[in-house]
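Protocol step 4 of 5: obtain the predicted structure for the target chain.
Materials: sequence only (see below). No template structures provided, no constraints applied. The aim of this step is simply to have a reference model before the mutagenesis design in step 5. Sequence pasted as it appears in the construct record:
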Amino acid sequence: MSADAILTKGKRIGAPKRLPLPTSRRVYATLFVILAAVLCALPSFVSGYVMTLAVEVMIAGVFASGINLLTGYTGLVSLGQAMFLGFGGYGIAIGTALLGWPLWVSAPVTLVVVAMIAAAIGAVCTRTRGVEFLLITLAFSQMFYGTAIKLRWTNGSDGMTGIPRPDLSWLEVSADSPTIFYYYILGISVLALLMLWRIVTSPFGSILVGIRENERRMMSMGYAVANYKVGSFALAAVICAVAGILQSQYTYFVNPDAMSWQMSGEGVLMVIIGGANVILGPFVGAAVFVVVKQALSMITEEYNLFFGIFFMLVVAFFRGGVLGAVSTLIGKRK
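Step 4 output (structure tokens):
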């Protein structure tokens, strides 16, 4: 069923008028094309340091996109999504370094296992809402964080090393090259973005937005709201796990810090800064977060203090994040 059909069904039973889109798809398509062109050409005119920052931004953007599906589109604010980031990293490490599986086997097996674990956790967490949901996701995250520290076969708090990058010898290139790895991350990020776009523009995505806006109304319309929330939770977890795999390949390493609540909090900040329930919002938020944090850390050791002030200014003056402010400006011009 299309989004329009869902909304039409809502009207037939007395539901309020349809929700407006944040901005036109044409604007986002134009932004996406321009951004893709700039990113493709980036290695030819920037230094290695800038390229490294771009890799970190894209990985963080994929992670924040997973959070955005759950928080921005479904209305479930979680402080536990970093556990799936860690599951991605540990899954690929266990598969390749511990079990000796090739990467092309370890990666899909990791994502399937993460989806199954996330569905089980989501079935418990989505029985709550609001602050209770936030706290129970935080509790699960801290439980797995503590487990990762205690487990000997994952090397405890020291973490696991030797995580391989993809073997691209059949293309006669090496993923250990910064430029090749940059394009590898770019390709995966674009695929993740397109998959997320397909999800949120599908009838499934429209139902998630309906749940965010009025859960009781969606239940009264006959939708199995609980199942949709669990589905959103599992999909968001898989996207976060993809970011975890990329992060572990970037550093050749994973440790329990990847599952910390601070990491989850940073992901939520990226979504808020860039703009929730906007496809490109998490990537914009990740870019602002990484660049501003790096710039402030080069100026002062107390950069967290000034970053907090920066975040408050964004929330106060950029309603709906950076892209929310852009959308408002476009609306005023019309």
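Step 4 remarks: Residues 191 and 197 are 10 Å apart (CA to CA). The first strand starts at residue 160 and ends at 161.
Proceed to step 5.
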